[in-house]
Amino acid sequence: MKTLRLFDQDSHLYTFDATVLSAEAGKAPDTLSVVLDSTAFFPEGGGQYPDPGTLAGCPVTDVQEQEGIITHTVSLFHLNGAPHPFEKGSVVAGELDAATRRVRMQNHSGEHIISGIVHRLYGYKNVGFHLGDGDVTLDFDGVLTREQLDAIEDEANAIVAACLPITAYYPSPAELTTLSFRAKLALTEGVRIVRIGTADDPRDLCACCAPHVDNTGEIGLIKLLDFIHYKGGVRIHMLCGSWALADYRRRYTAVASMAAAMSVKQGDVVLGFERLQAEIEDKKKVISTLRSKLETHTVASITPTEGSLCLFDEGLEALEMRRLLNAAAEKCGRLCGVFSGSDEDGYRFVIGRGDPAIDLKPRIKEINTALSARGGGSSEMLQGSCTATRAMIEAFFAEN
Ligand SMILES: [Zn+2]
């Protein structure tokens, strides 16, 4: 017997009683596969997850449909082995997670409105729809620009504001032939049509089995977010209803804290950010000039030696370390090392040679061991990082 689909008749039915037709052990331990005579749980399908909720107080973890029979996977975990209430013939109470169902309906109905407008204005088909958790994607088989999406969004929200009725119904085969509706497949019988607008003035007709809001006003807000070019068309991220509100709240908090941190008005955060970027670039130039002066000074202050040299600094970039190494190596006869960092955080290093006859490559292992380092390189130069202290490093260079 096919399951009576209560969500077909009333999408806002969140509690119901139904009779158990069968209950078998589920695939996972401590679960049951329950079939009822009727259900308000929408099964997974058409890009939408199944409804969450409870049956007889037990969590419903999955709802699937096969040939009209809807099977609920119910978790018995919390019963701790006590007898379950799903004996054949018993009546159980079902309760949907109403907030989740409501926001999914807001987003699914919003998707129909957007897809209807895109189809009417540009002739593009919706070729992919995913109603995830707080993220909805729509794929169209044609390209749209941001300006076009803004106009589509305006028109969609005007439909929301007009509080148009949304009706789901099964037209007779004869009536179906007279209707022009959007559908993924060529459908001829048992087709459920979701109509936005009145019968006299339908704004969109689409074959769909999912529950929808009763009135476009329930959607609240339709917001098109990022979009990318995808498989010759576009993939659009969209949020409607309370997901759109939550998203607005997140973005508002982010913008408000950025504005406060930069001491600018919220409307000026981009300007404030650009000003910060420019300041950072200016400071980088100043730092670079100062560093280069410091480098010249450091090199000039080195007393030439026949032995080895090692220099320390806290925050040198890789390029600066190499430049300093090249200048300093000319002032020593053996090894030359430049170390950047601290005893607490460890050091990054480059090691070169004052005498071109010294081959560093065969000494990699010895140097790594002495400096507790991970390093490598060529005959002329080694580089890496080490955890040895400054005193240990200086002792090594004094002996080599
Ligand atoms: Zn649909």
How is this fold's topology laid out?
Blueprint: E1 4-5, H1 6-9, E2 15-25, E3 31-36, E4 38-39, E5 53-55, E6 58-66, E7 69-75, E8 91-96, H2 98-122, E9 126-131, E10 136-140, H3 146-161, E11 166-169, H4 173-178, E12 193-197, E13 202-207, E14 222-230, E15 233-240, H5 241-262, H6 269-300, E16 309-313, H7 318-329, E17 335-342, E18 346-353, H8 364-371, E19 373-377, E20 382-386, H9 390-399
Parallel strand pairs: 1-4, 16-17
Antiparallel strand pairs: 2-3, 2-8, 3-7, 5-6, 5-8, 6-7, 9-10, 10-15, 11-12, 12-13, 14-15, 17-18, 18-20, 19-20
Helix pairs in contact: 2-3, 5-6
Zinc ion (ZN) binds at residues 46, 108, 112, 206, 208, 210.
Can you offer a commentary on this structure?
The chain is α+β, with helices and mostly antiparallel strands and 400 residues long. The protein has 4 domains: 4-96, Elongation Factor Tu (Ef-tu), domain 3, CATH 2.40.30; 101-249, Threonyl-tRNA Synthetase, Chain A, domain 2 (2-Layer Sandwich); 265-300; 302-399, Roll (Diaminopimelate Epimerase, Chain A, domain 1). Helices cover 34% and strands 30% of the residues. It contains 9 helices and 20 strands. The chain has helices at 6-9, 98-122, 146-161, 173-178, 241-262, 269-300, 318-329, 364-371, 390-399; strands at residues 4-5, 15-25, 31-36, 38-39, 53-55, 58-66, 69-75, 91-96, 126-131, 136-140, 166-169, 193-197, 202-207, 222-230, 233-240, 309-313, 335-342, 346-353, 373-377, 382-386. The protein has a 6-stranded antiparallel β-barrel. A 5-stranded mixed β-sheet has the order 16-17-18-20-19, with helices on both faces. Strands 9-10-15-14 form a 4-stranded antiparallel β-sheet. β16, α7 and β17 form a beta-alpha-beta unit. α2 (98-122) packs across α3 (146-161) and α5 (241-262) packs across α6 (269-300). The radius of gyration is 34 Å and the shape is elongated. It starts with a strand and ends with a helix. Zinc ion binds next to α2.
